[in-house]
Amino acid sequence: MNEILNLLNLYLSQDDRNEQEKQWATSQTDSPELQDIIAKLDTREVRIIGLFEINTDVSLKELPQSIGVSQASASRSATKLEDLGVVTKNKTSLNNKEWILSLTDNGEQLLEIKQKLDERHRQELEKISTDYTDEELQHFADLLRRIIKMDRS
């Protein structure tokens, strides 16, 4: 267990990997505006952008559960994305107290870059996991889910 804990801590503390990913993402656009936005994003904001792969609009109310953070953290990230011009916040037509996030044109371009990065990660994972059976990979995914839940308990 100590080895697993040490490896998880090592993975989580890899700031250079985050910087490498930002450099790669920046290289995917010629727009100085998008490059500047990418430099200012953190992992939480990138995860929010990723939610738009499934939905064209994202409910601010459901955001904390979707990305696994507090309401306050989700709200701060949504405001930051709005300030950066990545999303717009609009009240729903059914309930004036509920807000919906939508991607701007810059947000759409960032989503495309995120999808390319996800595909790169997917390909890397496929390469390094060839020694494992589907069942072993499923057990590993189950362990990761339990670890994530452990932090929330």
Automatic annotation (TrEMBL):
Q: Keywords on this record? A: DNA-binding, Transcription, Transcription regulation
Instruction: Outline the extent of the HTH marR-type domain.
Output: 1-149
Q: Which residues form the signal peptide?
A: none
InterPro entries on file: HTH_MarR-typ, WH-like_DNA-bd_sf, WH_DNA-bd_sf
Residue ranges the record marks as coiled coil: none
A GO molecular-function term, please?
Answer: DNA binding
Top-level taxonomic group? Bacteria
Protein name, UniProt field: Transcription regulator
